[in-house]
């Protein structure tokens, strides 16, 4: 960069450079701290000049004042708006220098002797074991690893209603867990799952609504899958029954699993 570029600070602050020289100086200013610092000291002076009455200064033209000085002063007054742009350029130059300094520090911190940042290792997948007594029906719950079905499998089809079911009963500390799959179940209707104990008592463990197209039907081939639990121990259960409940609350059996 030529020495003339360092000599244009005052001319740039007063706004007397032509557009080509202005652009060239601004490129120089972005990388030259010396000119940036000098320009910053001139900003208050230009601000004071902006408060001078232009008409009063024009009147001085008729005096013995140097005409060249008068012209430069009036130009500075008219171009006071350039002060905002000057401050933006100073901020840009400062950011360039600060970024360069930080880059050097970061490069030193990331040298070969720096300790490596520990990286998290991927979590190993949890193994999925097949159920000990898995369903044979490919549409049954748990097929394909979606959910493990526990317990002994029991199948039944009611000869009167045609409703089919597969149930899995598993012994638990709290009682018995029951997984149910239902097909050929027409709708609409309200159903419930009832556990019958060997002491002739019963317990409703689940209720649900069947839509008009039913489950496992020609209109809806998908079967219904649900789960429930009871406090009754597995050894105390005599049968598990799916019932249909009409609007008057009267229940009728749809399908029963009794080979327990």
TrEMBL record:
Compositionally biased region (Basic and acidic residues): 145-157
For the Putative zinc-finger domain, which residue ranges apply? 10-35
Q: Print the keywords alphabetically.
A: Membrane, Metal-binding, Transcription, Transcription regulation, Transmembrane, Transmembrane helix, Zinc, Zinc-finger
Q: Does the keyword Zinc apply?
A: yes
The entry's protein name is Putative zinc-finger
The record ties this protein, via Pfam families, to: zf-HC2
The answer to whether UniProt assigns keyword Transcription to this entry is yes
Database matches in InterPro entries: Anti_sigma_zinc_sf (IPR041916), Znf_put (IPR027383)
**Which residue ranges run through the membrane?**
89-110
Annotated stretches, region: Disordered: 110-162
Query: Annotated Gene Ontology MF terms?
Result: zinc ion binding
